[in-house]
Amino acid sequence: MSLRRKRIFSIGPATLAMASLLAAIPAGAQYPGQLTKTTKDAPELRAIAVLEWTGDAGKPKASRIVPVAVLDDGQLQDGGIYLARPEPLALAGEVEYQLEQNGKTVGLYDIRNAGQEQGSWVGYGSWKAMPRPKPKPSMSEVARMRIGDEDSDVPILHRKHHPDDTPTGSTSTGSKSGQAPPSDPDRPTLHKKDTSEDTGDTGTTKTASSPAPDPDRPKLKKAKKKQTADEAYVDSVPNDTDPDRPRLKRGKSNTDALNVVPSLMGLPPDMHQTVAVSDAKNRPDHPWSYTWANPADEAKMKLAMEDIARNALGLNSPTEPPPATKPTPKRSATRKKAKPVTPPALPPPEPLVDEQFRVFELAYGSGATLVLSAHSAGPLAQEKLITLIAQPDLYGNVLVLLKSVTDGAHLDETPRMRLVDAVDAMADNRGELLFELRGATQRQFALYRVLRGQAEKLFVTGGGEYGAESSN
After folding, report:
1. In a domain, 184, yes or no
2. Handedness of CA 142, 148, 151, 157 (dihedral sign)
3. Which of 455, 469, 373, 352 minimizes the C-alpha distance to 420?
4. Could you write out the three-class secondary structure of the chain?
5. Given its phi and psi angles, is residue 199 left (phi above 0), alpha (psi -120 to 50 degrees) or beta?
6. How many separate domains does the chain show?
7. pLDDT of residue 443
8. By the number of CB atoms within 10 A of the CB, which of 25, 67, 174, 194 ranks highest?
9. Does the pLDDT at position 435 exceed 90?
């Protein structure tokens, strides 16, 4: 009886320690603080925008960047208003965008400042060329450099080692960070200035520090900036809300006037557009062009889509020619053989103005996705405009997934869909079609995902439904 009690008494503290450890585990799991994600496949912060410019690519006369969407934690947010303080996150200073055309990076665009045009935020900056990688030296050049080093007459200085020197990296009494003390006690030694200040006899110190930035605010990819001798940098004050507080301008100033970035105003007819992407990860290019097994199939699909567009715009002529009329022949004693009557030729089809035809492969191994946009000739108020999204069916015919038809008098009710390009908005190696929805007095941008024989509107700026589409 006493032995059993002794055993219970001996294991009692271990049991209590184990119980306390198990009780502490769920308490730590229920900690309401912010948890760090460890999933490697989680999408990074990614911004999608449209660069608009006039002039030549790479050296525009005027340019601006229009934010479309920000992918944060797998959700698409409106890039024009997301985390605006006061400018949105997508237009924060020094954010760098990669400019893409058909999935290939063609340049960089660094945001310098932002402003509002007709109530919408836009950014201004500079277009930079892609940095050229340094070419690797050939085997002959490497061998030549090695031979040159061996045959060089330039003397090389070596530090003399003393018997009483301690080896590098070893620790000893009175040394800091594993560095050995100097061998010569009379040799002067330089020390870094201590930034702390003594407060008095209490022995406590003060350390000057700037306000900490907001840890919860996400950050997009920043542009690399070279610091020169004439440039100065100032820490930002994120918690400052005083509107009368003076602001310092970064950069080098050579005149009294500020260096204003050329801005693009309105919608000039010679304006160009391209996709812009800002991502913290460096992702490889993903070309969106579709390669036909038979080049004749592309011409066949284009003719079929043009015929559908003309029928929708009312431009096609009757498919059968009118019956031919001929005079009644006079009777004669001698019967002559009648000549065959040639039917009149069909008139040529009405031309499609500003026709744009693109074929995409929006995912590796997927089929072709065709997009055609055009409009009829005539005054702007009488123009008819159409945009088609289609795919080939199993029999080689055109299957229309989306058809948008409007005219110049109803653009604010049904805007014109203008294709910008394909872009990987969800960072999943699948392309979405980016359209500009342009009305008479306003415009928006929309992302469409083509999947399983359907064209679904994935995202639209402004949050509301603008425009109407039909499935066929």
Report:
1. no
2. negative
3. 373
4. CHHHHHHHHHHHHHHHHHHHHHHHHHHHHCCCCCCCCCCCCCCCCEEEEEEEEEEECCEEEEEEEEEEEEEECCEEEECCCCCCCCCCHHHCCCEEEEEEECCEEEEEEEEEEEEEECCEEEEEEEEECCCCCCCCCCHHHHHHHHHHHHCCCCCCCCCCCCCCCCCCCCCCCCCCCCCCCCCCCCCCCCCCCCCCEECCCCCCEECCCCCCCCCCCCCCCECCCCCCCCCCCCCCCCCCCCCCCCCCCCCCCCCCCCCCCCCCCCCCCCCEEEEEEEECCCCCCCCCECCCCCHHHHHHHHHHHHHHHHHHHCCCCCCCCCCCCCCCCCCCCCCCCCCCCCCCCCCCCCCCEEEEEEEECCCCCCCCEEEEEEECCCCHHHCEEEEEEEEECCCCCEEEEEEEEEECCCCCCCCEEEEEEEECCCCCCCCEEEEEEECCCCEEEEEEEEECCEEEEEEECCCCCCCCCECC
5. alpha
6. 2
7. 92
8. 67
9. yes
**CA distances, 43 to each of 47, 305, 422, 429 (Å):** 12, 37, 19, 11
Both structure tokens of 207: 């350390």
The partner residues of 206 in beta bridges, in order of sequence, read 197
Which of 128, 145, 168 is a domain's end point?
128
pLDDT for res 123 = 95
Does residue 191 sit within a domain? Answer: no
Which of 20-34, 148-162, 247-261, 421-435 is most confident? 421-435
Evaluate whether residue 85 is within a structural domain: yes
Q: Say how far apart CA 234 and CA 232 lie, in whole Å.
A: 7
Of the CA atoms within 13 Å of residue 385, those in its CB half-sphere come to: 23
The amino acid occupying position 325 is: T
Two tokens at 116?
Answer: 């509002």
> From CA 465, how far away is CA 395, in angstroms rounded?
35
State pLDDT tens for residues 358-392.
999 999 988 999 999 999 988 888 899 999 999 99
Sequence letter at residue 296? A
The answer to the question of residue 328 being in a domain is no
Domain that holds residue 79: 46-128
